[in-house]
UniProtKB/TrEMBL annotation:
The lineage of its organism: Bacteria, Pseudomonadati, Pseudomonadota, Gammaproteobacteria, Vibrionales. It comes from Vibrio pomeroyi. Residues 249-458 form the Histidine kinase domain. Keywords: ATP-binding, Cell membrane, Coiled coil, Hydrolase, Kinase, Membrane, Nucleotide-binding, Phosphoprotein, Transferase, Transmembrane, Transmembrane helix, Two-component regulatory system. Residues 188-241 form the HAMP domain. Residues 271-298 form a coiled coil. The keyword Acyltransferase does not apply. The chain crosses the membrane at residues 12-31, 171-190. Pfam families: CpxA_peri, HAMP, HATPase_c, HisKA. This is histidine kinase.
Length: 459
């Protein structure tokens, strides 16, 4: 098993885990050196103070021969405000000399301390609750060799680590707080490459097959995933581009024999005169030429639509188109109405966007009986365009199929119209390449409603 590298995701998780464990371990190891409840050597200044207290006591009770009286005076009650150290005496065997019948917590602390600390050459100190005990120091009182201990109230707060270890919940919270920045950094290191990969996948789903160099940054696992994703995008892009170029080449090559066919048909009409058969040949040749032209348009649009994009006001794109369509509808004895165009801007390919609305508007005029309505709506940063007609409409089970290439509905709406079945396909491709959608439903006017939704620039 190889040692994980710190640049890898596995290595970073491993390092953060052990770094947190190391912090806890260092805290545990440092605790005995900070815990005043563990017996430790008396500091030099405190030891000097103890020795001065012993000498002062010897001097004070030098003329008192009764040791019991000395002990009684040492244990005399004091005011709570008296912060002086209290003296305790033991014999050389470790028995505490006291005149009290009942032991208070201070006397119990002294007795506990004396059982383990009785060497005057190595005085210690130890904390019992809020009471610090230190000693022993040799002292002579009433002609007897004794050991002196001192006790004083300890008002200093315990060390921070000691408070934590005394309260497991606080210790847990401290560990969580200490590890939170590392975990946040780890979460960020995990989420950022994942979000970049998600955004790149969404762009691919919308038909934008572009390599994203930022995917190849971050931990080694995400870099490898990003490299593989970019390689996949390149492969898919090359495959689609090759397919589209092949379609474009085939369509282009078909134009030459088609042109010769139409020229030969024209010569035949000139020599033999017009006939129903020759006229049908010319009509079908025209339809085939129109189909090839639209195939070339679709192929060229799918390859190059992402190259030319610019910001345009919505009104500059579609206002003239709608006015021209309104004029053509009047010439056909029909009425086209449209709502006020919002004063917003959109980023995209102007030619494709204009062609998309122009195509579905002219279809509505052609198939509508006498009424066409175009409505614009803006909700937040989404533009919705609804084109309605009062024609025969499309069967409900075929509404989702009309955007497929060469699809012709089974009703009279698309029978004997001369259409190629590519117009709505071109429109749907143009809208999809602008991150929009187009749907077909029944219109309230009785015919077909085509609804376009496009993202627009924020105000």
């Amino acid at each position: 098993m190889r040692i994980p590298k710190i640049t890898s995701l596995y290595g970073r998780i491993f390092a953060i885990f052990w770094f947190t464990m190391l912090l806890v371990l260092l805290s545990v190891l440092s605790l005995p050196h900070l815990d005043p409840r563990v017996a430790r050597d008396v500091p030099a200044d405190h030891l000097g103070k103890l020795e001065r207290i012993a000498k002062a006591a010897e001097k004070r009770y030098a003329r008192e021969p009764n040791l019991g009286k000395i002990v009684f005076q040492l244990e005399a009650p004091r005011s709570r405000k008296d912060s002086r150290a209290r003296i305790y005496l033991t014999d050389l065997e470790g028995a505490v000399l006291t005149s009290k019948r009942h032991s208070d917590y201070k006397l119990k602390a002294i007795r506990n301390f004396v059982t383990s600390i009785d060497n005057p050459e190595m005085p210690k100190q130890k904390l019992y609750g809020h009471y610090m005990v230190a000693g022993p120091v040799p002292i002579t009182l009433a002609g007897e060799e004794l050991l002196m201990y001192a006790g004083v109230k300890w008002n200093q707060p315990p060390p921070f680590l000691l408070r934590l270890f005394d309260r497991p919940l606080q210790l847990l919270l401290a560990v969580m707080l200490a590890s939170t920045p590392l975990l946040l950094w780890l979460a960020w290191a995990l989420s950022q490459p994942a979000r970049r990969l998600e955004r790149a996948a969404q762009r691919v789903a919308k038909g934008q097959f572009e390599v994203d160099p930022t995917l190849e940054k971050g931990t080694s696992e995400f870099r490898q995933a990003g490299e593989s994703f970019n390689q996949m995008v390149e492969a898919v892009n090359q495959m689609i581009s090759g397919q589209q170029r092949l379609l474009s080449d085939i369509s282009h090559e078909l134009r030459s024999p088609l042109t010769r066919l139409r020229m030969a048909n024209a010569l035949a009409i000139r020599k033999q005169g017009e006939s129903q058969e020759l006229e049908r040949i010319d009509t079908e040749a025209q339809r085939l030429e129109q189909m090839i032209s639209e195939l070339l348009t679709l192929s060229r649009m799918q390859v190059d639509s992402h190259i030319t994009r610019e910001v345009q006001p919505i009104s500059s794109l579609w206002e003239e188109i709608l006015k021209d369509a309104q004029f053509e509808a009047e010439q056909m004895g029909k009425q086209l109405t449209f709502s006020e165009i919002p004063e917003r801007s959109i980023s995209g390919n102007p030619k494709l966007l204009m062609s998309a609305l122009d195509n579905i508007t002219r279809n509505a005029i052609y198939y509508g009986k006498d009424q066409v309505d175009v409505q614009f709506h803006v909700v937040q940063d989404q533009l919705t365009i609804c084109v309605n007609d009062n024609g025969d409409g499309v069967p409900d089970d075929e509404l989702d199929s009309i955007f497929r290439p060469f699809y012709r509905v089974s009703t009279a709406r698309d029978r004997n119209t001369g259409g190629t079945g590519l117009g709505l396909t071109i429109t749907e491709s143009a809208i999809r390449q602008h991150s929009g959608t187009i749907t077909a439903t029944r219109s309230q006017l009785g015919g077909l409603q085509l609804e376009i939704t496009l993202p627009i620039l924020p105000v």
